[in-house]
Amino acid sequence: MPAVMAVKRLLPLRVQQQRFALPLEVVERLLPLAALHPLPLAPEYVMGLLNFEGQSLLVIDLAGRLGMPMRSHYPVDIPLVLLKCAAYRALLVVDEVYAVETLLADRLRGEVLFKRGTAPLQAVVEMAAGTTLLLDCLRLLDVEISPGVESALLDADLLTQSRIADTSASPTTVTAVELR
Fold this sequence. Notes:
Distance between the termini: 51 Å
Shape: globular
CATH architecture: Beta Barrel
Largest sheet: 7 strands, mixed
Strand content: over 45%
Number of strands: 16
Radius of gyration: 17 Å
Number of helices: 4
């Protein structure tokens, strides 16, 4: 009996001229851009909070999160990708989303190299349109929030899900802040 090969379903997307992909199991849906509530003292790539089905979710500009230049203007039709990664949810702003692709898991390359780094990348994969970087959802959603912002959120009883990496006076790492 032939061995069964593991398959991976990926959602390819584009940020500027670079191709990335997310494992389909962490993607809940695509949404249009809507009114955002600013989050003072958050990193520049955190665009703000978006109320979605009664929850305020972080909206992260993927270009900025990856150290790429951010847009100065966001068109109303720019897609948001709603992620659910472990117990955390957040929205990513991307330039374009493509059709889901299914490929054999053995096409992933460089996983060992990316495990050692801090970049939110998991592997490199050859997809239909070319070389694509597979994003690591948990590392992608690690967002530094200044202690003042985190304190205000806690005081307002808004912070419901977080993983605090450091309790010193330095910025706190919060994974996909989900607010009530």
